[in-house]
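Exercise 7. Predict the joint structure of the components listed below.
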Amino acid sequence: MQPIQLQWIDYTILIAYVGFVIGIGFVLARYMKSSSDFLTSGRSIPAWVTGLAFISANLGALELVGMAASGAKYGIATAHFYWVGAIPAMVFLAVFMMPFYYGSKARSVPEYLKMRFDERVRCVNSISFAVMTVFASGISMNALAKLLTGLLPWKLDFALPGNVHLGSYDCYLWICSAVVLLYVLKGGLTSAIYTEVLQFFMIVLGFAPVVWLGLKDVGGWSVLKGKLVDVAQNPAALSLNDKTFQPDAWSSAWKPLIAGPEHNPMGVDLFAMVFGLGFVLSFGYWCTNFLVVQRAMAAKNMTAARRTPLIAAIPKMFFPVLVILPGMIAIALASSPGKDYRLPPRLIASSAYTTAIADIKTAKPENAGAAFEAVSKDIGLKLDKTKITALISQNAVAPLPEGQLKDRLQDAVAENDYDSVILSLVKKYCPPGLLGLALTGLLASFMSGMAGNVTAFNTVWTYDLYQAYFAPGKSDKHYFWMGKFITVIGILLSIVCAYLVSRWSNAMDIIQLVFGFVNAPLFATFLLGMFWKRTTGTGAFIGLVGGILTSGLFHALTSAVGNAPGIKGGYLHVVQVFPSDMAQNFWLASFAFTACFVLTLVISLATRRTKTDAELKGLVYSLTPKIKDEEQNWLLRPAVVGTILIICCIILNIIFW
Amino acid sequence: MGLDIRWPIGLMFTLIGILLSIYGAVTGSGNEMYQHSLGININLIWGVVLLVFGVLMLLGAVRGGKKPPTA
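Solution:
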């Protein structure tokens, strides 16, 4: 990554944002009087604020970066994550599930599980959730520190006693964590929520001009679509994919999907997409993940709590324009020769240059084929053979200087670094000024990714682990203190995780794999628990554990095309090979969900109920008095708004069919 | 919670909007750095957009009747 030139105006915008964020924390500190003020915002926030925080908590930088990457890799079909996945799940949460979460007075999702089932279910959920949030915030911070190290021109190096050196990466990691710590510690969950709203506007207003300029540069939507047709017929030209596809593979959402996994770049079939992603994974995430649900639970009353996901769904529906379109713009630009843009290639490790350059220097033009193999092996990435051959013959005639050789080698890399797509567009279109705004948006999303996870972590630790198992029956003052203390610990643990992920790149894959195992079956437990009063604690517990084990087993027995048995699956025996990682993942979720659902159902029927109807009031659908929506204006009733949202979603799906 | 979020949002975007539009006006459309943005003085345009947004948020906060934070 090339460092970029930032002007004073860019730094000013950046500093203004950080100043406001910390300022919010300090202003809110006056209102933090009890553990519930700090950890659950005392249930006092208006719906539009919790609604924006609800999507913002999910709109971490990884989402921003990842969706643009998928937009380039898979085109418009990436929008399924929104129009099939998120929106229906958010409507379901608002209409059916929020009454139980909010009405039960539970302070967290694990606490709801304890009320509905028993301690065992809560324990599994709270521990896995706590570990997950710490890692998620560590991953965010690692990405941020890496980004800043690559972008900012300073080379920092502080020597500490004991021969410890703090480099740029360390400094950025610690400074950014300290900022997050400061405002979360001061203003608790409210601080995190308010900052998320600020971040929401920062991202929208920071990236909208980039998308607008990009689209204008390509020549508008219809030209973009035309370019995508070219790309689909020869994706190898951009090193996107080795296969060729129907012309509409990048520009239609459903047709390539219905045609089968070999006709869409995702390599996914219709069932895996609709059931695996649309139902299991999305509902599992949006309806049960405490990180997002916590935002709705902080709303000031039941009406506001139910409106939270609905308000969130409106901007969410149009987010593909902001987050997926940039990826599509990038491939359209890359396939327009006059635009002087290429997808950012993966970077060659600095240690690989020495041997590669030595090989180039000794290579003879007449056996360029063997030399190409050797250089590819040195670098460990796919290279462009013509470029390397040209380089070898040129260097044999007149030796090139070292720097030029490096540049030419980097230029010959034929593997894309999709995660850099968004940044490459920011660099291309932003003059100083706007650049500061867009980078601040990116920074904001990384930092609030950490804040969101830490505020969910401190609540689950304090209420579901510490109060439940270590120190029950203490004064609120004690838990308030613990909430603050664990916030500091949470930030420190995140920093440890950031280092872990940065040192050992496999760590990230393993963590995400394990999250997948734990999360996939969870929605089955909630679905049965909320809508079937016969579900027992034992049934839920065994179902959940069984579902997690099923995920693990499924993963051990399947693989995806192009992956050797190992971390990507198939380490026991390969029974089934899926066309892509994504298909494998969606099918895994489908299996885990089904296993959990069936196990919970069967064991619940075989075991005795431990909770009476009276105890389950407010926790189960059939035993809870219906909320009287009639008092509200009928147009604002959750069910009506939800239906309208679903209809809009269907229309969007048809437009981009 | 005692603080109306529209105050900080409004103040921040008003501030950034003013900064960005002044910067855009001073650098002028002919400046070669706007080759990045297809010859458009995006700083001036977008600065004004941010300013309008910020002011609208502040108006909302005033209407909401909360006093600005005094910390």
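Discussion. Chain B has a mean pLDDT of 82.
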